[in-house]
Amino acid sequence: MTMKNVKLIASDMDHTLLTEESMLPPNFAEYVSALNEKEIEFTIASGRPLYTLTSLFPDLIAKMSLISDNGAAICYHGEMIYKSLLAVADYQQLIAFVENQKLGVPILCGIETAYIAKKHQQYQDFFANFYSKMEFVDDLQALEVEANKFTIYFPKEDSKLHYQNLFAPKYAEKFSITVGDTIWIDIMNKGVNKGQAMKILGEKINVSADEMMAFGDTYNDIEMLQTVKFSYLVANAAEDMAQYANYRTKSNDEYGVLVVLEELL
Question: Are 101 and 61 found together in one domain?
């Protein structure tokens, strides 16, 4: 099977599709339209929430899919086709654990907005890069809302260390846990990841894993890269990610995703 059989393409956002300046590559919309014309579905697969992705691609929503919150919510051409909500008791327990340990900044990722304690409001400008909607509350543990992800932000850039030493041993049996960059740990319902989301999307549009392509750079992309036949790492990917992808492309700053799309088109 050759690359011309590809029917579904997914790309991670940060450090993959986006440059280090958090900019989309030039003429990105034209590539999505060109793929559309060839009946190839393009998907953003991100740890960011659905409302943030929707706000970033207002003119492309009808032409592509969005895998958000690492697969905990999936949108196909503007229609939400899947969401995996955390139990209220579960996320309240997680919030209490993080707050008691004083490990980082807990963020409850609601379907409609991100909830953050008022005592962490100094990070508002930074969080705005990832959450287009935020609500600062007096007591995070008291919330009872629809939420599909729980995130911890680590200002000291030691998320992988906390994942290995604390969160994986304590919670990996019950939840899907992933590390994003050096600053995030994301916790979703068991089985939720970008790879599973690709399977759900594939079933929706009748595309097999052999007809899928994906681009990634770090740990929350592992399952997605393992799921698809044409798995690509950008040149700036984390060093220990090489084992999970079959192919390589240029770095995000060299528009590595577009280089492969150009070849495909």
Answer: no
Integer Cα distance of 257 and 53 in angstroms: 18
The SS3 assignment for 46 reads coil
Last residue of a domain, one of 129, 158, 189: 189
Residue 75 pairs with which residues in a beta bridge? Answer: 66, 80
- The interaxial angle of helices 28-37 and 256-264, nearest 10 deg, is 30
- Whether this model's pTM surpasses 0.85: yes
Give the residues across from 79 on adjacent strands. Answer: 76
pLDDT tens per residue across span 131-188: 999 999 999 999 999 999 999 999 999 999 999 999 999 999 999 999 988 899 999 9
Give one word for 69, left, alpha or beta, with left for phi > 0 and alpha for psi -120 to 50: left
Residue 158 DSSP SS3: coil
Residues 102 and 159 in one domain: yes
